[in-house]
């Protein structure tokens, strides 16, 4: 009875081992099958991609065009992933402002007119104070006030409207248009922005030209 029991025990263990081997072999087979299926799936995907590339590119597209299309696809993929940002062109071309040009031209014109009036009044006041006739002298006109007016013109502390008006008076004087000059002098006294003393000095020097210098020149 002991020997029969031992044989039965050994038979059971053998059957268990055979079953385990069968289970292992079935697992290996299923894994192998799964691996083969994945390999086949990858091969099919590669073949499908190649076919799509061939259909998209076509037989007539050159290698250079294919390279460009490949780079374009790579850029699109990077842009979709947020790796590439679209660059915007910036124009740094300098465009001078038209208003600044006009303003600069206006300042230059006023400066030239101020220099012209300064030279004119300097020469006039030298003749005026050198004249010994008492009747041509104006009591309001003195050397100190004249020098103040000349300094205002030299250092450009006089308004541009006064410079323009004085330059117009000088132009009418050179044209010897006496009637228009007298009207312009009255207008200057009414509209001038300079001090009353300086306006009086300028007006008196122009009147001195009308009453004394021009008649003498015309007689000669």
Automatic annotation (TrEMBL):
Annotated stretches, region: Disordered: 1-82
Compositional bias segments (type: Polar residues): 25-35
Residue ranges, compositional bias (Basic residues): 13-24, 65-80
Membrane spanning residue stretches: none
Source domain of life: Eukaryota
Protein name listed in UniProt: ERIC1 protein
Organism expressing this protein natively: Alaudala cheleensis
């Amino acid at each position: 009875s002991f020997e029969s029991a031992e044989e039965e025990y050994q038979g059971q263990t053998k059957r268990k081992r055979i079953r385990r081997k069968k289970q292992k072999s079935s697992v290996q087979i299923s894994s192998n099958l799964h691996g083969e299926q994945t390999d086949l799936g990858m091969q099919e995907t590669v073949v499908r991609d190649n076919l799509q590339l061939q259909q998209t590119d076509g037989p007539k597209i050159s290698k250079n065009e294919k390279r460009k299309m490949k780079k374009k696809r790579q850029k699109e993929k990077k842009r979709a992933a947020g790796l590439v940002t679209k660059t915007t062109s910036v124009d740094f071309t300098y465009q001078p402002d038209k208003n600044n040009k006009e303003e600069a031209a206006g300042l230059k014109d006023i400066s030239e007119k101020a220099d012209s009036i300064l030279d004119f009044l300097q020469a006039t006041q030298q003749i005026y104070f050198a004249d010994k006739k008492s009747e041509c002298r104006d009591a309001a006109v003195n050397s100190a006030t004249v020098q103040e007016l000349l300094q205002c013109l030299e250092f450009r502390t006089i308004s541009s409207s006064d410079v323009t008006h004085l330059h117009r008076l000088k132009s009418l004087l050179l044209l010897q248009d006496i009637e228009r000059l007298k009207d312009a002098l009255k207008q200057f006294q009414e509209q001038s922005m300079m001090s009353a003393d300086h306006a009086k000095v300028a007006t008196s020097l122009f009147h001195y030209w009308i009453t004394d210098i021009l008649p003498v020149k015309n007689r000669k």
